[in-house]
């Protein structure tokens, strides 16, 4: 399996500096990195920081999440087929919600080949202290990126006094008690901290005992359906029982009376079904908080 890290953080926080330093450390360990870089504009400015010998896929105009998830899946599939690498780093645009970006990583087609280690968020420490100056929408995104991190870098600490540094760490720890917090300058993080992150993905099959609840608050679960018998209505009844902490679901769901498993997508309480003309594997990826404790229809 390939280890995957998702680098998150607000615009100008220092993600690209972190990326170039992590790539340097991977190479020193003779590990081959690959990068998917997401940028808001039409020109790949940040990707110029990635060396020529590293497999690189660019997602311009912020299309790694939402409607662009399928394009991202295609880029990952392309890397898996055509490139020789050990570690995949996905750097999201500063305007990306981490859950949407994580959603783009998971596809039932290759979820078993990727070991998502976690979300690494770079937070601008000075901006954290001045977050009340941001518009409500921007502040909300800034806070969400921090709230969902598994590893949190309090960056640009060189711009703060010692008292301000202590305040930032104290407040960040209270806001996201799950994440390990590291004070940094220039986004420098020891590779061992990344490697120590726990994988968020779990695989559940009907003939396998459930994995224990993951220690990470935001995780995923890959469910494989075998010999199940439920209708579309029964499946949607189950969906309505899910807590609000289930953010995304997508995959191919076997429905009674339908030849091939149907493509199913769920986001923010809305469901979408599409017929599939090729027999795809009956698998579903669930993304959210404490998803390992959910009772899944057909697995009970």
From TrEMBL:
It catalyses: GTP + H2O = GDP + phosphate + H(+). The keyword Chaperone applies. Transmembrane segments: none annotated. Keywords: Chaperone, Hydrolase, Nucleotide-binding. It holds the Pfam family cobW. Residues 227-292 form the CobW C-terminal domain. The keyword Ribonucleoprotein does not apply. Residues 4-181 form the CobW/HypB/UreG nucleotide-binding domain. It comes from the Bacteria. InterPro entries: CobW-likC_sf (IPR036627), CobW-like_C (IPR011629), CobW/HypB/UreG_nucleotide-bd (IPR003495), P-loop_NTPase (IPR027417), Zinc-reg_GTPase_activator (IPR051316). Coiled coil: none annotated. This is GTP-binding protein. It comes from Lysinibacillus xylanilyticus.
């Amino acid at each position: 399996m390939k280890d995957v890290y998702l680098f998150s953080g607000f615009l100008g926080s220092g993600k690209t500096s972190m990326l170039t330093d992590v790539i340097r450390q991977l190479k020193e360990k003779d590990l081959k990195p690959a990068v998917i870089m997401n940028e808001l504009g039409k020109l790949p400015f940040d990707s110029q920081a990635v060396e020529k010998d590293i497999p690189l896929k660019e997602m311009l105009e912020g299309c790694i999440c939402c409607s662009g998830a399928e394009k991202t899946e295609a880029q990952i599939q392309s890397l898996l087929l055509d490139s020789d690498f050990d570690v995949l780093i996905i750097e999201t645009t500063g305007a990306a919600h981490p859950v949407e970006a994580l959603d783009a990583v998971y596809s039932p087609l290759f979820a078993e080949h990727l070991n998502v280690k976690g979300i690494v968020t770079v937070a601008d420490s000075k901006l954290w202290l001045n977050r009340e100056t941001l518009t409500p929408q921007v502040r909300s995104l800034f806070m969400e990126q921090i709230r969902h991190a598994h590893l949190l870098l309090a960056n640009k600490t060189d711009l703060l006094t010692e008292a301000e540094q202590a305040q930032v760490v104290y407040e960040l720890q209270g806001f996201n008690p799950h994440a390990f917090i590291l004070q940094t300058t220039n986004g420098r993080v020891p590779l061992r901290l990344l490697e120590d992150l726990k994988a968020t993905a779990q695989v559940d099959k009907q003939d396998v005992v459930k994995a224990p609840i993951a220690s990470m608050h935001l995780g995923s679960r890959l469910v494989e359906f075998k010999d199940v018998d439920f209708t579309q209505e029964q499946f949607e009844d189950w969906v309505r029982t899910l807590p609000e902490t289930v953010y995304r679901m997508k995959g191919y769901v076997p429905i009674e009376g339908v030849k091939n498993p149907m493509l199913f997508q769920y986001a923010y309480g809305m469901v979408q079904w599409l017929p599939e003309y090729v027999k795809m594997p009956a698998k579903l990826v669930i993304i959210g908080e404490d998803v390992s404790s959910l009772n899944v229809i057909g697995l009970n």
